[in-house]
Amino acid sequence: MLKKGLGVLKYGFVILIVLLSLGPFLWVLLASFKTNAEILSNSLGWPSSFRFSNYAMAFKIAPISRFYINSVIVGIFGTVLNLLLLGMAGYVLARFQFRGKKLLMGAFSLSLLIPGAAMLQPLYLTVNALGLYDKLIGLIIVYTGFGLPVSLYILSSYFLTIPKEMEESAYLDGASFIQTFFRIILPISKPGFGTAGVMQFLLCWNEFQFAIILTTGNQSRTLPLALYYFKSQFASDYGVMFAATMVVIIPSILVYILLQEQVVSGLAAGAVKG
Amino acid sequence: MVRKNRGYITLFLLPTVALFILVYAVSLVILFGTSFTEWSAGRSPKFIGLTNYIQLFTDDADFRQSALNTGIWVVLQSTIHVAIGTIFAIILSMKEFYWKFARTVYMFPNIISGAAVGMLFLCMLNPDFGAVNSIARLFGNADFSQNWFMDYATAFFSVTMTWLPYAAVVTILILAEIAAIPESLYESARIDGASTLKINLYIVIPMLRNIIGTCVILSGTSMLQKMDIILMTTGGGPGNETMNLPIYIYKTALMDNNFGYSNSVGVFLIGFGLIFVLLCRNLFRIGSSQH
């Protein structure tokens, strides 16, 4: 009896979770093909036909393509820069002993404890003072910094698993420090970089509050802000609003489905050891 | 090897140190330094001692509401949210036929931007065409149709529901930890006649203490920066019903241009987070041996 009850409870829980996760997407996806009249009269039903005019309209009336390009630029550069810098730092911190190392590690892990929101005004000030306000490069630098604790953690944990003999034999063959890092360490650390890279990319792609504070014109705004824009400017054109929402969501879902194992192992990477 | 490599070590560390200084260290110095000043845009900061902090704690109803909401959300997130994630992880770990599908789908709301999640729920709960109200009407309960995000009675609950059930990160972390429990432990428990429920209650969950503690910290602290969904859905309103500390910082700093005051809220937020992390570390004895 108890066993049966638990079974019902279990499946009920799973179904509820799946519905809660998938329901809103499917509903908005369906609605994105409807006309305004259909949305208001037939909110739960199937669209009368699958027309893409809402999507065409979304791209036409809002600078979504500009936002898209900006997001891609910020995502790629924010990720590559983060991986390069933190790969280098993580390697040195994982491999060598030197004075001040403890202090440095302490300072870096402190950054995990500072909520981004507390830094809103100070970072706005810094970015402004550097003349990077409303420029993509400003966002790239800030996001590269935000990914510091997570990337450092994932990458240096990965470097620790590489046997030291690899480098020693490289040195014996006459390779320099830089050659050893770029030719030996980087290639065998691909999984570590993949994991840190996906996490960092999603951070850049989804970030909202600093994007809204550090930019002002459409020239440098990113995709999450497109929705904010839609909410205020086209609030009565529901079909277009739904299409715009899907346009923002679909790339994240695609990236996730393609790199699913990488994301999952990335999230789990430190957990077991930590 | 170290002596010879000293130059390279410096070279490899320098960019990250510069980044850390630029993004974190400078911000912290500005934050603490100016939290004792009266400072608005275009003026230079004027030292006023503890005045900002005194005002925060004695004469600022908006701040009190924001701090209270933040506190409630931290508590909900580190209990109900983590519990949902843990239960789901244990169910998925039984690896029944649907587990990969369920894990994938559950990740969706966690992988897309908070602004998009906010938009989804804004549409779902719209009083004119939202699915929730349409379903309510289907059951003949027309009074149920209301503006969930704008109504004082429901706004807080509605906003909370946009993140509380979505604990996929917790689920993944705990699933990984369960996978690391040796199979032999389950087998010997089964041979002793223990049921699945008992195995989970008395063997699996106690072994997850460390990781559950980590999840409580991660989920709780994520509430200290929550801004995108709230800004998208209610903007902190109605009134200040769904205002939290990040939105209050945003409001005082960039809309009221009250920099010094806003930074004293920032200092409070950091202190709040540190106390929460220390409490959790002690509560779950994180880092100490499990056996």
From TrEMBL, chain A:
The keyword Lipoprotein does not apply. It is a multi-pass membrane protein. Residues 68-259 form the ABC transmembrane type-1 domain. GO terms for biological process: transmembrane transport. It holds the Pfam family BPD_transp_1. Its main location: membrane. InterPro entries: MetI-like, MetI-like_sf. Keywords: Cell membrane, Membrane, Transmembrane, Transmembrane helix, Transport. GO terms for cellular component: plasma membrane. The chain crosses the membrane at residues 12-33, 67-91, 103-124, 136-160, 238-259. It is found in: Cell membrane. Belongs to the binding-protein-dependent transport system permease family. This is Sugar ABC transporter permease. It comes from Paenibacillus donghaensis.
From TrEMBL, chain B:
Belongs to the binding-protein-dependent transport system permease family. The chain crosses the membrane at residues 12-36, 72-93, 105-127, 155-180, 201-224, 265-284. GO terms for cellular component: plasma membrane. Residues 67-280 form the ABC transmembrane type-1 domain. Pfam families: BPD_transp_1 (PF00528). It comes from Paenibacillus donghaensis. Its main location: membrane. PANTHER family: BLL4140 PROTEIN. GO terms for biological process: transmembrane transport. It is found in: Cell membrane. It is a multi-pass membrane protein. This is ABC transporter permease. It comes from the Bacteria. Keywords: Cell membrane, Membrane, Transmembrane, Transmembrane helix, Transport. InterPro entries: MetI-like, MetI-like_sf, UgpAE/MalFG_permease. CDD domains: TM_PBP2.
